[in-house]
Design a protein that fits this description.
heterodimer; A: D-Maltodextrin-Binding Protein, domain 2; D-Maltodextrin-Binding Protein, domain 2; 2 domains; 13% strand; B: 282 residues; MetI-like fold
Chain lengths: 426, 282
């Protein structure tokens, strides 16, 4: 026992001695991002996309918005920072808007940026608060085995919600277990399905007609679909996993969250557009952008990096690394990965469909973005999981939604008609 | 006759004993399986190819593919992050013992004003969630230059580990009769010598236990680490957040990478822990 004391003491001293070796300053540009967080994508961003820039870029990605936002808020408050360039989704920039540098003077050369997205990047001000970086959307994916169970007369590239429910029912009954999967887990993107797919397809709205009879019908349809949905869906986050394991044959998810399935077994899976409802084929494009915080250590270098990220060849490299599509005009080469080929075709079919009904991500909600999403998640949990009365739940949640809209003062965004003042909830 | 009754009487007793033994062994086996099976599954999946990980039924033999593990070892910054994690956990361990043990000693040996309040206050440090504290802490750290240093992060982790260090050492010191110390004083020891030569060897296993606690708390902490370090990220901050959204085969490999160092550490200090349970020097 006695021998332990000196040994433990020396261990303590040794550990103490290392304390001295603290941080050394680093002149790299720190790219602080919420995108391309899965390790393989981070790796690809570093090795295939950012390695071509003439300065070293330290690409740090996290899927957890908490630390991401806390860190940049702390730097802004302290008035000095290490972050050079921020990468995030449209909605995540909103609360930082006042502290972002105007990017309109960046020389982009002969690159043509998508004008709609560029306008979104102004966040309702006169300044270019962020520049669009890449875009994605949500589509459907299916195992080829599932196609055998398609209802008669149904075209997988022009499905309706009724046909999807019927398809899920037949699969569940004939294979003995539910084969439709939905990302309803904690990290799943279910709220985007309700905001950008279910609601627009049934009500041509996401906010105004939140508690309308059409919305009631939409939720009842979804409840019906849920009966033939794999009950483990409440734990699903990235549908590519369940598609690969075979737990699920048909699923809806973000293109980047399906890519692994398409790339690993391209011959086993098909990609196709989201289903249509009475008011069209609702779908929602996702836009990520980058911005420069006013505390950036080297603003000029950050601007150069931003311009580099928008070059066509960088955009193609980004597409290969992250499965997010370019936001500038670019000709895609033929030798793209399978996921790009498959989801690219599905996206084209979806946005080019006669009944296409695109919606925007929520605009102008500011800090209420999370609460807005929560309204849809709570509604889902109460109606579908807890089996509460649809009418009652919609009436109650509509009050919550109205408070959020009034507090933030956000006017309506597509597919809702533009409003004067806060978007009303009828 | 008597012999017969004796054996008959003995049989039920032996039966009960062997049944008791059976229950005992069963419980031991269940407990071992409880702990070992997840670690085993983690290990075999870490060493399997993506196809094998996704396949069903699962194989109980590893595929001996090192691609996934190699991915991590090749992932820029893993080595440095591992070093930072060990460094931060080490400093946390040292600081929480250096601060916690004297506090525990004082609480058990001396009576002073506000002792009870102090005990509650020590626990209070755990009452505030880190996401709430992280913003002001980060602002302060950036202003003072503690930002992005192992020492700064270790200070935060020490705050988290300190209540455990204080309470564990407090109960240990309370378990050692003050008479032992008094005897040492009468034999010529100073107060410090009595502590160093008599009390310290007795509570060393307990110190080791609270050191393990401090180490594990620091090792597992993500939020503060993710906010307060940039260049000098710890392994958990570096991997855990991204692991959550990575494909299954990388989750397993990353899990193994995160678990292995902690397991090795606990394996190294196990003798001190066993000593506390009275099976010393194994």
């Amino acid at each position: 026992m006695k021998a332990m004391i000196p040994r433990l003491t020396s261990a303590v001293l040794a550990a103490g001695a290392v304390v001295g070796t603290a941080a050394t300053a680093n002149a790299d540009i720190l790219f602080w991002s919420t995108q391309a967080a899965p390790l393989e994508e981070t790796q690809a961003m570093r090795e295939q996309v950012l390695s071509g820039f003439n300065e070293t870029v330290d690409y740090q990605a996290t899927d957890d918005r908490g630390p991401w936002l806390t860190r940049i808020e702390a730097e802004l408050e302290a008035g000095s920072g290490t972050i050079g360039l921020l990468g995030a989704l449209h909605g995540e920039f909103v609360s930082l808007s006042d502290n972002l540098i105007d990017m309109s003077d960046i020389d982009l050369g002969d690159v043509t940026v998508n004008p709609t997205f560029q306008e979104l990047g102004k966040l309702g001000t006169d300044e270019q608060k962020y520049l669009p970086w890449m875009q994605a959307t949500y589509i459907m994916a299916a195992n080829r085995e599932a196609l055998d169970y398609l209802p008669e007369g149904a075209d997988v590239n022009a499905l309706t919600y009724d046909e999807l429910i019927e398809w899920a029912r037949v699969m569940a009954e004939e294979t003995g277990s539910p084969k439709f999967g939905f990302p309803a887990g904690p990290s799943g993107l279910k709220h985007r399905f309700f905001q950008g797919y279910l609601y627009p397809s049934y009500t041509d709205s996401a906010v105004t007609k939140f508690r309308s009879p059409e919305a009631e019908e939409a939720w009842n349809k979804f409840k019906e679909l849920w009966e033939y949905t794999n009950p483990a869906s409440t734990g699903y986050g990235f549908m590519q996993e369940q598609l690969l394991t075979g737990d699920v044959w048909v699923a809806w998810d973000h293109t980047a969250r399906l890519a692994d399935a398409f790339n690993q077994r391209p011959d086993d899976f098909v990609a196709f557009p989201a289903p249509a409802g009475p008011t069209g084929r609702g779908f929602m494009p996702v836009i990520a952008g980058f911005a420069i915080p006013e505390t950036a250590p080297d603003v000029e270098a950050a601007k150069e990096l931003a311009a580099y990220m928008l070059r066509p060849e960088t955009q193609i490299a980004t597409l290969e690394a992250t499965n997010f599509f370019p936001v500038v005009e670019v000709d895609l080469p033929d030798d793209m990965p399978d996921s790009v080929r498959l989801s690219g075709t599905a996206i084209a079919a979806m946005s080019g469909a006669d009944d296409a009904n695109p919606s925007l991500l929520p605009v102008g909600l500011g800090e209420n973005n999370g609460k807005f999403n929560q309204v849809f998640n709570d509604t889902f949990e109460r109606i579908v999981l807890a089996g509460q009365d649809v009418r009652t739940v919609l009436d109650e949640q509509a009050d919550v939604l109205r408070d959020i809209m009034e507090e933030s003062g956000a006017s309506c965004w597509a597919p809702d008609e533009p409003s004067e003042g806060a978007c009303p909830v009828e | 006759m008597t012999a017969v009754t004796a054996t008959e009487a003995a049989r039920p007793a032996a039966d009960i004993r062997s049944r008791g033994r059976l229950v005992f062994v069963t419980v031991i086996v269940i407990l071992c399986v409880w702990v070992l099976v997840p670690i085993y599954l983690l290990a075999i999946n870490a060493f399997s190819s993506p196809d094998q990980v996704n396949a069903f039924p699962k194989s109980f033999v590893p595929g001996f593919e090192t691609d996934n593990i190699n991915f991590f070892l090749g992932f820029a910054g893993v080595g440095k992050a591992l070093f930072n994690s060990i460094l931060v956990a080490g400093i946390t361990m040292v600081l929480s013992i250096l601060l916690g043990a004297p506090a525990g000693y004082a609480l058990s040996r001396f009576d002073f004003h506000g002792k009870d309040t102090f005990r509650v206050l020590v626990l209070m440090t755990r009452a505030f969630p880190l996401p709430l504290l992280a913003l002001p802490l980060a602002v302060m750290f950036i202003r003072t230059g503690l930002d992005d240093t192992a020492f700064g992060l270790a200070l935060v982790h020490t705050t988290l580990a300190l209540p455990f260090a204080v309470l564990i050492t407090f109960s240990l010191f309370s378990g050692i009769p003050v008479e032992l110390e008094e005897a040492a004083w009468t034999l010529g020891c100073t107060r410090f010598q009595a502590f160093y030569k008599v009390v310290l060897p007795l509570i060393l296993p307990g110190i080791a236990a609270s050191a393990v606690f401090a180490f594990v708390i620091s090792w597992n902490e993500v939020f503060a680490a993710a906010v307060l370090t940039i260049e000098n990220r710890t392994l958990t901050a570096f991997l855990l957040q991204s692991l959550d959204v990575s494909p299954l085969h990388l989750k397993f490999a990353g899990g193994a990478v995160l678990v292995a160092p902690a397991l090795i550490f606990i394996f190294v200090v196990r003798r001190y822990l066993f000593a506390m349970w009275g099976i010393a020097n194994r």
